[in-house]
Design goal:
Blueprint (H helix, E strand, L loop, with lengths): L3 H57 L8
Length: 68
């Protein structure tokens, strides 16, 4: 059987571990929402820039065989 001090110390360690896990979970969820928004914004900007570059190249070098 464990003595009272050892049991109390074990209980305090477990409580601290649970608190740390909760804080880590909050940090992870906060980072996910911010990260996904930034990722979506950069993805959309790159996609738009790629389309504009494609359009600019098409205007600069028209395909052969098309009527002008």
């Amino acid at each position: 059987m464990m003595n009272w001090e050892a049991w109390q110390q074990h209980r305090e360690e477990m409580v601290r571990e649970v608190e740390l896990n909760c804080l880590a979970k909050v940090l992870r969820t906060g980072r996910k929402t911010r990260g996904s928004r930034v990722f979506l914004l950069t993805w959309e900007l790159r996609r738009t820039a790629g389309l504009l570059l494609k359009f600019a190249k098409a205007l600069k070098n028209p395909k052969k065989g098309t009527r002008t």
